[in-house]
Amino acid sequence: MARIFPKLICLLAILTFLIVSGESNHGFSRTLSLKSKQLKREKMSHLHFYFHDIVGGRNPTAIRVAEAPSTKTSATGFGIVTMMDDPLTERPEATSKVVGRAQGIYASASQSEVAFLMTLNFAFMEGKYNGSTLSILGRNTVFSEVREMPVVGGSGLFRFARGYALAKTNWFNITSGDAVVEYNVYVIHY
């Protein structure tokens, strides 16, 4: 018994040290409960709007900011990077009420098909979502009938948001590259 007791005390001391050092109590962070942020009950919202990507004409809403040297020989435009500030409207017509902007970047990221890496914010300017944003980061295979991209976050009323966006091309001009895309966004938020 005399030999076991010091070993037991040593083992207890090591376990106590591991438990205490494993807690996340650093000088720059701490663990909080959800109740401390006074979050309400989660809900799901469905948003429906149209995205107007205008790359031609006198007032483009999307402009090419970079391209790889091989872009000229690529059938998919691989390496093209485009910055956008596209209007979001209630209906597909350009004269429809603007409810927000799609602001971000899309880049041609596939050598075998037209597929964009989309990184953008839907910044809403209308109704109860005025000032709130949803962040999208995903793959958009442009010529698929419906494309699904994840909602990875948000701000304002969409703080802690998660969900998905379904994009469906409503209209596309093959000559200019202009497009109107219908979005159905399903988002869980507080």
From TrEMBL:
User: How is this protein organized at the quaternary level?
Assistant: Homodimer.
Protein name, entry field: Dirigent protein
InterPro entries recorded: Allene_oxi_cyc_Dirigent, Dirigent
Q: Where in the cell is it found?
A: Secreted, Extracellular space, Apoplast
Gene Ontology terms: cellular component: apoplast
* Range of residues in the leader sequence: 1-24
The organism's place on the tree of life at top rank: Eukaryota
**What keywords sit in the KW lines?**
Apoplast, Secreted, Signal
Summarizing the function annotation, the protein's role is: Dirigent proteins impart stereoselectivity on the phenoxy radical-coupling reaction, yielding optically active lignans from two molecules of coniferyl alcohol in the biosynthesis of lignans, flavonolignans, and alkaloids and thus plays a central role in plant secondary metabolism.
- Organism equals Protea cynaroides
Gene3D superfamilies xref list: Allene oxide cyclase-like
Homology family: Belongs to the plant dirigent protein family.
GO biological process terms, alphabetically, are:
phenylpropanoid biosynthetic process
Q: What is its main location?
A: secreted
Record Pfam families: Dirigent
